[in-house]
Amino acid sequence: MTRAALHPDWITPDWKVSTRVRAFVTTRSGGVSAGPFGGPDGGGGMNLGLSTGDDRERVRTNRGLLRSALPAEPCWLRQAHGAAVVDASKPDDLVEADAAFTSEPNVVCVVSIADCMPVFLAERQGRCVAVAHAGWRGLAAGVIQNSVTAMRQQLGEREAHIVAWLGPSIGPARFEVGTDVLEAMRATLPRAAEGFIPIAGRKFLASLPALTRQALAQVGVEDSGGGGLCTFSDASRFYSFRRDRVTGRHAAVIWLER
Description:
The chain is an alpha+beta fold. The chain contains six helices and 15 strands. The strands form four sheets. A six-stranded mixed sheet has the order 4-6-9-8-10-14. Strands 1-15-7 form a three-stranded antiparallel sheet, with no helix packed on it.
């Protein structure tokens, strides 16, 4: 089967890893959804979430369009804002997890997002890849650390060089949280307070990119990029649950070419 070209508005990581590693994040563009799930300028939206209230046939069409750009059907997860990581080459129906990894070619790992951060991970030589769904609950639970650990265990190398790329998420200027989020983060990240800016009313602005990099550093991953795209601030390009409540979902996918 000839693979379809990626939509020009979809986002590919800018990172120094093997050319075997393929990854991208979809945006609102390139699909058939309408209304609050639509694309920019009234065009069809690429909503990939079946539980968003969108017409399910349109979502299935969008998933078919996504599949046409991939070497295989992605391993869709039942995300729970937790820290479970699964091997995408050994899928079960509706696996409950928030990250997936693989060392097998043409096995597609995927997470869906609408403000939470997708974190792409790749062993530099292209022997193993992963993607994690990292909202604040997942970060506090250790989803990043678990993902890196799973990759290194798969490779049998405790010091395997992992590279990370942080995809679009709600940005530090928009992510208003309470003290509960700060305290949850402190339990896992001793320097978590550095990722929070106090504002009025015992509230804070939290930086998912900064907190993600702290989590990566805990497992020795210092080589990271991305983290500069805000889903909340760019309504023409991104769905955002915090901004709109009724909204779609993007997909962050990664795999290894054969």
